[in-house]
C-alpha cells in the first residue's frame, strides 16, 4: 500500500532530508585520492548523530556501516573499509538519516581527482536521467512514466539501466511501496498522488546491465567489470506541479 504523508510527516522527512544533504555536502568535500571509504563513513555517522538523527543504514538487515560507498564497478551497497581512493576512481555515496522516525535517502556519484571523459559522461548522464524521470513525478501521472523517461534517456546515450535493483517509496521506513524500476513502458502502475514520497534512483552502467552480488552478501558489481554510477533523491509529489526534492539543502542552511 502506498501511503500519503500528512504535513507533519512531510516536515519530519524534510528535516531528515536536510541532514542527508548536509552529510553529502561534507563527504563531497572530503573525497580525494588517499582518503579511505572508512574515513568517509565515520565522518558521516558523526555528522548525522550530531544533528540529532540516526544513520538509517547502520544495522539495517545487518548492514555494518552508516553509508554505502561503491567504487568503480560496484553498483550499490559497497561496504566502507580501509581501501584508499585512487586518482581516477568514481565513487557512489548513498546516505540515509532517520529523524524522529522518518527517513531521508539520497545518493551521489563523485569523481576522485581527475577522471576519464567516459566516466564523467556516465556520471552526467546518470544525474540527468534522474531529472528526466522526475519531470513526470507529478500528480496524475503513472509511476512507470518516470521509469520510461529514465530508461529512454540512458539508452539514447549508449548506457544501460540496472534491472535487479530499483527505487522505492520512503517514509517511516526506508523501503516502502511502491517499488520504482528505472525501466519499462510508460502509462503503467499506480497513479501518482499529492503526498506520496518516493526515492528515485537510477543506477547506470557503461556496459551490460547484468550485475552480481559479491561474497559479502551486500556489494553488487557489474558482471563485465565496467563502471557504474548512481544518483538518488527523496521527493514529494506536490499539488502544484513540480515535485519537491526533500534531500537538498534548504535556503539558509
In a nutshell, what does this entry contain?
The chain is an alpha+beta fold and 253 residues long. It has helices at 7-30, 37-50, 117-134, 143-156, and strands spanning 54-55, 67-71, 74-76, 90-99, 102-111, 160-161, 167-169, 176-180, 197-200, 203-205, 211-213, 220-222, 228-230, 233-236, 244-245. It is built from four helices and 15 strands.
Describe this structure in words.
Helix 1 (7-30) runs antiparallel to helix 2 (37-50) and helix 3 (117-134) runs antiparallel to helix 4 (143-156). The chain has helices at residues 7-30, 37-50, 117-134, 143-156, and strands at 54-55, 67-71, 74-76, 90-99, 102-111, 160-161, 167-169, 176-180, 197-200, 203-205, 211-213, 220-222, 228-230, 233-236, 244-245. The protein has a 5-stranded antiparallel beta sheet with strand order 8-7-9-14-15. Strands 1, 2, 4 and 5 form a 4-stranded antiparallel beta sheet that branches. A 3-stranded antiparallel beta sheet has the order 3-12-11, with no helix packed on it. The longest helix is centred in the first third of the chain and has 24 residues, at 7-30. By secondary structure, it is an alpha+beta fold. The chain has 4 helices and 15 strands.
